[in-house]
Design goal:
Layout lengths: L38 H8 L9 H6 L3 H5 L4 E6 H5 L16 E3 L2 H4 L6 E6 L5 H15 L9 H8 L3 H5 L2 H13 L6 H11 L6 H6 L2 H17 L1 H8 L16
Parallel strand pairs: 1-3
Antiparallel strand pairs: 2-3
Helix pairs in contact: 6-9
Length: about 250
């Protein structure tokens, strides 16, 4: 087993530094050059029963994945709470989080099911969340090496909002395609993402993968300034939408 530096990316593919992830739990890792989790761990995820909450299956089945992305992989949905209870998920979820979802790190599912990507969703998942997670899946299937799991540790290191790393230009392009195809009204947060995308403000996946901290900080500052300058317009767009948490006008001056 090769020695891993404390500050190197964890081989599990989470995007975290090794010291903040599997250091001390090296027996859970395998080192075959692919940075995947052990088959047994992977099988615990892929062995979860499939679900079809909300319109998840209907929407996914109407997508020609191969035509859209060139990939032969399929998309499976599993229960978010059951996935969380395995204690190998990146995001915390509570019993009250009934509309959430997460695109499961493919490095965790590939050893036991290389033919599908997995999305974990909650029973009362809404349409905006469904296409949000599908947009992450399509971004990956379209050839991007950007995995959502890298966003949180990178944002912490750079000192920027995690959303600026997680919601890339390519992700928003797929989200925009899906919302138009299925005539879905995005919730408040996704509407802001669409607004940033339409104005060319989102960071590209390639720039996230490079992990140039100085560049990312500069781009993040540009996004924050743009949001502040357009706070009144954004507030008008989202104030009647699900997920609205109050006026954002002059947030940066508060």
């Amino acid at each position: 087993m090769k020695k891993i530096g404390r500050n190197e990316p964890c081989p599990c593919g989470s995007g975290k530094k090794f010291k903040n992830c599997h250091m001390g739990r090296e027996d859970e890792l395998i080192f075959d050059g692919k940075s995947e989790v052990p088959f047994e761990t992977s099988a615990r995820i892929t062995g979860l029963p499939a679900v079809s909450y909300g319109r998840s299956r209907e929407i996914a089945d109407r997508l020609d994945i191969e035509d859209l992305t060139g990939s032969h992989m399929g998309i499976k949905f599993i229960d978010l709470k059951q996935y969380h209870d395995l204690d190998i998920s990146e995001k915390q979820v509570s019993d009250s989080n009934l509309t959430g979802g997460v695109f499961v790190n493919v490095l965790k599912t590939r050893p036991s099911d290389p033919d599908n990507v997995y999305i974990a969703i909650s029973p009362k998942v809404n349409d905006s969340t469904i296409i949000h997670e599908l947009a992450h899946a399509l971004t990956y299937l379209d050839g991007s090496n950007m995995l959502p799991a890298i966003a949180k540790p990178l944002s912490l290191e750079a000192g920027i909002p995690v959303e600026h790393c997680e919601h890339t230009h390519e992700f928003a392009a797929w989200f925009d395609y899906l919302r138009n195809k299925f005539e879905i009204q995005p919730d408040a947060e996704d509407t802001i993402i669409c607004f940033l995308y339409e104005n060319g403000m989102l960071i590209k996946s390639d720039d996230i993968i490079k992990q140039d901290i100085i560049f990312l900080r500069s781009r993040s500052e540009q996004i924050l300034q743009f949001l502040n300058q357009n706070s009144a317009k954004i507030d008008a767009l989202i104030r009647e939408l699900p997920g609205y948490i109050g006026s954002r006008i002059n947030m940066e001056d508060a």
